[in-house]
Specification:
Organism: Characodon lateralis
Number of helices: 3
Largest sheet: 2 strands, antiparallel
Shape: rod-shaped
Oligomer: single chain
Distance between the termini: 114 Å
Pfam families: RH1
Low-confidence stretches: 1-14
Strand content: 5-15%
Mean pLDDT: 85
Number of strands: 2
Protein name: RH1 domain-containing protein
């Protein structure tokens, strides 16, 4: 039987916690003892199977709750691990992007420097050709 997170008891709706089974079993046993002392065993004979069933359901709910809590803890740990990995990968991506931008800047500076040297070379070449023509003309 699947059990919800809340159970109904004599005092109203209560959150199910791991200690509820033993507490409720103790309360039921005390009440049964009182009824038996007052009215005799015959009065509670038909109720005992129902009480046993209720206690079994409570025990089952307790086990399910414990499993859910353990699963929630595992999922929380897994989520934290995934978050840490995400943060690490995000930091690595940022670092690699910064390195890429630095390399791109260096590449662009080298390209500009090469263009500058190429223009200087072309100017010197034209200058030398001009001087060579002047020399040839003389």
């Amino acid at each position: 039987m699947d059990c919800s997170e809340k159970v109904l008891c004599g005092t109203g709706e209560v959150e199910l916690d791991p200690n509820i089974v033993s507490e409720e079993a103790g309360k039921l046993y005390a009440e049964l003892q009182t009824v038996i002392e007052t009215h005799g065993e015959g009065v509670v004979e038909s109720l005992v199977p129902t009480f046993v069933w209720v206690l079994e359901v409570l025990a089952n709910c307790k086990a399910q709750l414990r499993e859910r809590e353990e699963e929630a803890e595992r999922e929380k740990a897994e989520l934290e691990e995934l978050l840490e990995r995400y943060q690490a990968e995000k930091a690595l991506r940022k670092e690699s992007q910064e390195k890429y931008l630095e390399l791109d800047d260096q590449f662009e500076q080298e390209r500009r420097a090469m263009r500058g040297r190429e223009k200087e070379r072309e100017l010197r070449e034209r200058d030398l050709e001009k001087k060579a023509r002047q020399q040839a003309d003389q």
